[in-house]
């Protein structure tokens, strides 16, 4: 049984261990050796505080104490390994005896470094996109397939006097007003049907009064051809008219 357990756990990419009530290793899988370069047999009997060091231990200890009190705990932490930084999601499950007393802990640490790096890269990309969009004099917005705002630049927000973030997630009708929505709705629906639409119209907005606009709606299609939304570029041409 122990051999089969080791065969299974040694082929998993996560850190798996069993700790006694004193928080010393009683079982570790091969991933510990792969991540830290320490033979697994040297870890048996070693306390977590010694293995991970004071800084990491200070972060981990409250979660482990909570598990020793009987709670299953999941949290995220950062590890320093010889191969570099790793972000992990840790799950700690208490083991109980026949009387319900906690006699040890099972731990599983999954490497989520790539996930965190992807999130950070996405945030940086979104920040660059907003910087570029906010520098444009035209009004720029992204509308999803449900006709709700998912992005708009500063010029779009200040056009109606809305503070940043107030428009996000709201339907176009709610932001623009019923009369304005009636004027532009056919163009929005045509774009969401897959057509690039360019038009000029006199639009009676609920806030900001009636304005002449020149607008282009470009559909955003997925890999399968389904339209996920549209990008709107809008210029106020009232003065020119």
Please tell me about this protein's structure.
The structure is a single chain. 18% of the residues are buried. With 241 residues, the protein is α+β, with helices and mostly antiparallel strands. The longest helix is centred in the middle third of the chain and has 22 residues, at 113-134. The strands form 2 sheets. The chain has a 5-stranded antiparallel β-sheet with strand order 2-1-5-4-3, sandwiched between helices. Strands 7-6-10-9-8 form a 5-stranded antiparallel β-sheet. The mean pLDDT is 90. 36% of the residues lie in helices and 35% in strands.
Name the features.
9 helices; 10 strands; five-stranded antiparallel sheet; alpha+beta
Structural class: alpha+beta
Estimate the helix proportion, in percent: 25-40%
Order of helices and strands: HEEHHHHEEEHEEHHHEEE
Shape: elongated
Q: Calculate the terminal CA-CA distance, rounded to whole Å.
A: 83 Å
Compose a concise summary of this entry.
The chain has 241 residues and is of the alpha+beta class. Helices cover 36% and strands 35% of the residues.
């Amino acid at each position: 049984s122990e051999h089969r357990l080791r065969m299974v756990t040694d082929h998993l990419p996560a850190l798996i261990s069993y700790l006694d009530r004193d928080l010393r290793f009683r079982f570790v899988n091969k991933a510990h050796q792969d991540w830290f370069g320490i033979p697994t047999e040297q870890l048996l009997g070693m306390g977590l505080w010694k293995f991970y060091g004071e800084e990491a231990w200070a972060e981990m200890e409250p979660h482990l104490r909570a598990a020793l009190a009987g709670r299953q705990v999941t949290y995220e932490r950062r590890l320093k390994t010889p191969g570099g930084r790793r972000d992990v999601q840790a799950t700690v499950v208490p083991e109980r005896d026949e009387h319900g007393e906690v006699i040890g802990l099972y731990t599983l640490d999954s490497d989520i470094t790539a996930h965190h790096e992807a999130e950070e890269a996405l945030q940086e990309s979104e920040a660059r996109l907003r910087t570029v969009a906010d520098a444009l004099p035209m009004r720029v917005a992204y509308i999803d397939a449900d006709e709700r705002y998912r992005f708009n630049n500063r010029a779009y927000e200040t056009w109606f006097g809305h503070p940043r973030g107030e428009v996000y997630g709201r339907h176009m009708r709610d932001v623009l007003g019923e009369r304005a929505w009636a004027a532009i709705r056919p163009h929005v629906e045509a774009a969401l049907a897959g057509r690039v639409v360019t038009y000029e119209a006199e639009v009676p907005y609920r806030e900001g009064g009636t304005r002449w606009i020149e607008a282009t709606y470009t559909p955003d299609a997925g890999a399968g051809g389904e339209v996920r939304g549209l990008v709107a570029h809008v210029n106020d041409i009232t003065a020119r008219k």
